[in-house]
Design goal:
Blueprint (H helix, E strand, L loop, with lengths): L2 E5 L2 E4 L4 E8 L7 E7 L6 E7 L5 E3 L7 E6 L4 E6 L8 E8 L9 H7 E4 L3 E6 L1
Parallel strand pairs: 2-11
Antiparallel strand pairs: 1-3, 3-8, 4-5, 4-9, 5-6, 7-8, 9-10, 9-11
């Protein structure tokens, strides 16, 4: 059974940091890309970052470039999202998902849902001003 479990969310003040974890099981980790997505209240889900487990290539949305860093520990089947210099607009539920590649993360929900078929339950991140 494919399973993705996020952890590490919480409440932090603006300018603070959090590290999210995505623990994966039930599939060959090296064959997939792991993406991070977020959904704020009343807004569409959007792609935030992605890492290809096979070659380590990464993607970041413009809104988080320079502040977030994605990494992968293949031995632990875990992907991390280090989030620094957090802003109130980063407040959302953060989800990780497994897919065929990182290209779809930059697209619309229609695009990335087609490629990322396995999702975690999400972890809440709240940034106060």
């Amino acid at each position: 059974e494919v399973q993705l479990v996020e952890s590490g969310g919480g409440l932090v003040q603006a300018g603070g940091s959090l590290r999210l974890s995505c623990a994966a099981s039930g599939f060959t980790f090296d064959d997939y890309a792991i993406g991070w997505f977020r959904q704020a209240p009343g807004k569409e889900r959007e792609g935030v970052s992605c890492i290809s487990s096979s070659d380590g290539s990464t993607y970041y949305a413009d809104s988080v470039k320079g502040r977030f860093a994605i990494s992968s520990d293949n031995a632990k089947n875990t992907v991390y999202l280090q989030m620094n210099s957090l802003k109130p607009e980063d407040t959302a539920v953060y989800y990780c998902a497994a897919g065929g590649g990182c290209t779809a993360v930059a697209g619309t929900p229609l695009t990335f849902y087609a490629d990322f078929g396995s999702w975690g339950q999400g972890t809440q991140v709240a940034v106060s001003s």
